[in-house]
Design goal:
Layout lengths: L6 H8 L3 H22 L7 H12 L4 H12 L8 E8 L5 E8 L2 H14 L3 E3 L8 E10 L5 H10 L2 E7 L2 E6 L4 H7 L7 E8 L5 E2 L2 H16 L3 E6 L1 E2 L2 H6 L3
Parallel strand pairs: 8-10
Antiparallel strand pairs: 1-2, 1-3, 2-9, 4-6, 4-7, 5-6
Helix pairs in contact: 2-3, 2-4
Length: about 250
Amino acid sequence: MSGHSKWSTIKRKKGATDAARGKVFTKIAREIMVSAKIGGGDSDGNPRLRAALLAARAANMPKENQERAIKKGLGELEGVDYEEILYEGRGPQGTAFILEVLTDNRNRTVPELRHAFNKNGGEMAASGAATWMFDHKGVVVIAKHKIAENALMERALEAGADDVQDDEDVWVVTCEPGEFSGLSEALEALEPESAEIRWLVKPENALSFADADAEAIAGLWAKLDELDDVQKVYCNADLPDEVMEAHGL
């Protein structure tokens, strides 16, 4: 799943083709398994699982797939033991990449990542090389027709939000990761379009590209996103929507 901050990217993922949807289901299932393993199978008391199930519903993932992933995470069904790892890298034109990975074999994952970077104008980087350009935030996306801005602002700030932004046809509410559970619960009645903890590019570190540069960056981004062990890809490049869409991002 792509980690671009624009709502248009999230909407494209929700409308993925059948082939792409199968890969999305696999990645969501891994997240559900790990979330259930870490925090238990009750989504009311496990905000990470609640966010994963919301992503599953948004992607139209069958209910039985969700329940099976929870059971695997709880050990009620045989499953794979995944390890969470954060990798960083550099792309064309000095762009920064963060990769959230769930893997059962890092000896397989690292060569795959290195190959994708090296073949597409980038390189893997040491820990901290990219994360300083981003903020780690809880993000809840609410359709504008659900609530007026002032009413949302009041409810969100009381629940621990630090900002509400206008993005196309949605409100994007952000908070510190520690406030995410309370915020997502407070806004649950509004049926959010998405709710997750993610990396957001700091405005001063966002870079805009077009034409050949945008194509090169999107090419690497797509190759990383295609890897089975990669859950999310974040990049500080702001690329034209048509380029992102052409590369399936």
